[in-house]
Amino acid sequence: TGAHFLADRLTPDRLKVFEQAVQFQFFQALGLIAIAGLAYKLPESRAIKIAGWLVIAGIGFFSGSIYATTAGAPRSIAFIAMFGGWSFQIAWLTMAAVVLFGKAARA
Q1: How far is CA 107 from CA 43, 49, 60, 102, in A?
Q2: Cα 61 from chain centroid (whole Å)
Q3: Is 84 strand, coil or helix?
Q4: Model-wide pTM > 0.85
């Protein structure tokens, strides 16, 4: 895996940050599977589709910016992670609305 490849190339602190980004990406990917399941059951729901795209964008922004800084990009690029965090929050709030409020939120 990437962590094994990078173990002798990164400082322990940077390797830990990389591993946290991988872990975060993994859990968001599990959530994406749940979104896909809901999208399959409710194919007419635009809200679910938007939530899925927001999670994908969040993974790119959040984990991607962390991977980039780990690979040597300037630390100033880390501000992009904030947009990923916002994407995740909006996506999961959208999914909660669909689940809690039913058909009214599925438009």
Answers
A1: 11, 11, 26, 10
A2: 8
A3: helix
A4: no
Closest CA to 82 of 61, 64, 68, 67: 61
CB-based burial, 33-63: b 16+ in 10 Å, e otherwise: eebeebbeeeeebebbeebbebbbbbbbbbb
Mean pLDDT of 80-86: 93
Cα–Cα distance for residue pair 102/42, rounded to 1 Å: 11
Dihedral sign for Cα 36, 41, 43, 49, please.
negative
Task: Convert the pLDDT of each residue in 33-74 to its tens digit.
Answer: 999 999 998 888 899 999 999 999 999 999 999 999 888 889
Checking 88-94 for CB contacts under 8 A at 24+ apart, the result is 88/28, 88/54, 88/55, 88/58, 88/62, 90/51, 90/54, 91/35, 91/50, 91/51, 91/52, 91/54, 91/55, 91/58, 92/31, 92/51, 94/47, 94/48, 94/50, 94/51, 94/54
